[in-house]
Amino acid sequence: MNFRRSIIITGGAGFIGSHVVRLMVCKYPDYHIINVDKLTYAGNLANLKDIEDRPNYTFVKADICDFDLMMDLMKRHSVDGIIHLAAESHVDRSIKDPFTFARTNVMGTLSLLQAAKLYWESLPEKYEGKLFYHISTDEVYGALEMNRPEGVEPPFSTAASSSEHHLAYGDDFFYETTKYNPHSPYSASKASSDHFVRAFHDTYGLPSIVTNCSNNYGPYQFPEKLIPLFINNIRKRKPLPVYGKGENVRDWLFVEDHARAIDLIFHKGKVAETYNIGGFNEWKNIDLIKVMIKTVDRVLGNPEGSSLDLITYVTDRLGHDARYAIDSSKLQKELGWEPSLQFEEGIEKTVRWYLDNQEWMDNVTSGDYQKYYEEMYKA
Ligand code: NAD
Ligand code: TYD
Known about the structure:
There is one protein chain. It contains twelve helices and twelve strands. The protein is globular. 40% of the residues lie in helices and 16% in strands. The site of thymidine-5'-diphosphate (TYD) has 12 residues, from helix 6 and strand 8.
């Protein structure tokens, strides 16, 4: 079959990647979407069950650090676009094992960049019509202060925020121009990969875009991250480990809104630009946890507040960043993107999805799916 475009999406079996793959495969039947994923503990092909038989979708189990294979894939499929999401993504794991993060996030990104450079430079049209789109995080910017004077409201759109809960926790935000200041091994590795992407543009002219997004939530997130972990623990009446006092602030965006932004930027973004993606939706962890408890209890038919006793304050994460808050007005003004969901709607959808998909959750938490894929891909 002849396709109009051929795009590699790395990390497509993970949380955000699976939403991006689904969107691109369904929205662009004339694009060939090649999902390149190593299937680490975080990758799960069950996330893509509904689209795996589509004629414009191909899955390749591969490590992005394998430079020769990346070159070969790009050549074999005449790839003209790369949307790079594959990464080690969990801060707590990076604190325990920083090497794995440097390997995949830094060396893996470099391997892809070099493969794209050599392949595209070998073509008669060279970089014309090509794009390397690198997905990054707001965590590269470091941490913001919590210094909002009592009662002062922020002077910007709060489209995705809850009506009752729309205050920012400080007077500063992460802008595209904010200096990088990563604190965790995870964010340091992502910052390094962002620098390599920009260096390949500035040195060789490789057409690239970088986007930095805030915390995502929604279906198919691996339950080591706050929201799915806590929904599952509430369901199972297990303790909810709140780090420190639960006062840290994160800016939450529904994952499908991130996927829509990626689609828009891939097609309409300007080469060499950076775009911040976020929903102006800041929550203190403890407040967010109480909303989750209320929602899960209501959906399960438990008496209101009956799971509050599961909250367990535990030792804080090392180097725990106080506050993340993204200013995404550039993306809103220049490309017309905005988040589609109010936060309460997003949380309701998310809670219902995890409760309706207990088999997915139980498979992922039992590790059965890993054994299954090890068998399936045995040489
Ligand atoms: P995830 O951990 O759920 O998925 C990562 C995927 O990458 C998995 O499918 C895994 O198998 C794959 N992978 C890991 N190492 C690989 C390797 N060496 N070769 C090939 N594949 C490999 O992560 P996520 O939350 O979906 O995040 C995706 C991207 O978005 C990451 O780059 C992350 O830094 C970025 N990001 C995430 C968030 C968030 O809140 N989750 C926010 C902003 C940016
Ligand atoms: P997480 O989902 O790990 O995302 P990130 O660290 O990339 O922001 O954590 C979100 C917030 O929740 C963060 O401030 C750490 C906190 N947290 C807990 O309090 N307990 C937990 O068990 C986890 C996983 C996170």
